[in-house]
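Quick entry, no commentary yet.
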Amino acid sequence: MSLHESHHSESPPKLEKEKREEKSRGEKPREKDREKSDESCQEKEPQLDETRRRAQESAGQREPFQRDSQERQKRIESYQQQCIPRRLRKSKKVPLSRLMTLSGSVRQFEKEHAGEQIFPERGPFLVIANHSGGETWKLLALLRRFDTHIAAAQELNFGRSPLRRALLNKLRMLPVVESLANLHEKEKQELLERVPGTKRKESYRAVMEREASLGAAFANAQFLQESVALLSRGDVLVMFPEGPFLYDGKTSLRKGYGGVETIAHAFQRLTGETLKIVPVGISKAEKGRVRVGRAFTFTEKPADEEKPTDWMMRQLAVQLPEQERGFYTDSLRPA
């Protein structure tokens, strides 16, 4: 048998055996590798699932929040477009407000509080102040770095003359329907006798007649909408909760009218945020001395029977000397 024949005759069994051995040797590592790989996947899959689940949950939580936030912002922008008067569409500071710093009480206040942050760093916020004579110009000067809007009586100020209306519009003020509902009939008649000038007297009489026919709770929807829209833009609103000037020479604080809390609630419904209220007391007895209190919100009001307006007015009263606290002298207690 030749070597060649011998090779062919013996090779098949060897080849088969070697193949079986190689196959056996080769398969076992691969089986082990597959088992290890499967075990490794079984260990990682729960981690991947958990990671994926958390990511999905997080995305699910963010998406509604982002969606709600975007929808709210759209509602705010739509509200602003509908309710902000055309003359106030562009946000800017009140003209000539820097010239108003020539007031001695304003210079004194800013000198005493130099370097201090008296008002919130930015709007929106609502300022409540008392009547003292010249308070409008002092407040415009103190708030000159904000886009500020002072609530002015619709009949008694805006309706007095075209020239006066043009000036108030230029100063970016808002007309508000005034009220004399806190006065008794006798007090109203005495007021008419004190009011100077025929035109001005007619304006006060028109307010009394309107409330007599429509009731004291006359709706002020337009002012409410304009105020909330401007505040939602980041502006500042100034209100005098005592109501119109009464020409009686008294300097003490009067019982406040409602309305500020209504604006605060409407603002929160629109924006989801609480509205800051800043009390500013201007003392006539102390030659126009200005005191600015801590900003507060109606959420800080204790759960008692006191009306929100009276609670708010007490925050204003403590900014005045005791002899000027008037209606709120005996009801003061820490806020």
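second:
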Amino acid sequence: MFLKKITLILTIAAMSQQVHANQFNGNVKLENSAMTDVNIEGSADLKNMTMRSLKINGDVHFANLKVTDKCTINGSGKGDDVFCHDIILHGSFTTQNLRTFSMVVHGNLSGNDIAITNNLIIDGALDCQTINVSGYTQIYGEMNVSGSTFNDIILTTQKSTITNSNAGNITIKAEQNHRAAQQLILKGDTIITGNIVFESGNGELHLDKEVTVKGQIYGCTKK
């Protein structure tokens, strides 16, 4: 019995050391490893890494990162081949081949080949090619996308451009302290299956001849 207690204590101690080992300070570079919960106070360069959760207070560079739970980054950076359940970014981010359930960005998001199975919220600009969002998309800034698919889109923007893409309803929220007309530019073979609504009543809708809008259009003049 005494031996079992010692073994249990040693096991708990070993587990504690493992968790403690996943706390890093300073500039960190990790490669080719699997970990549980990782916290980094400083910049991070991660390559071929798998973990349960990740929190970084610093700028980042990812290559082939998999996080099965939440990924929180308080900093800017770049990440290619990123697979996370939920991503929260406080900073601008550039990516190629990103897969996630939901994503919140307090900054600009740019890149290509992005798939989000739930919602996307950006307090900043979106500049992407081939982004697919199954939930709703809400952007407080300029949107410039092509070759993409969206459900409903809510924009607070002065000017946004959608090219060769599909979307449901598009709502352009009124901007305070801006008197100029808000512009939505639809190009190429873009198809909007729902309504387009400018809540300010002072919108400009620019349509290429190939564009299809299946719903109603409110609050704007067509250009």
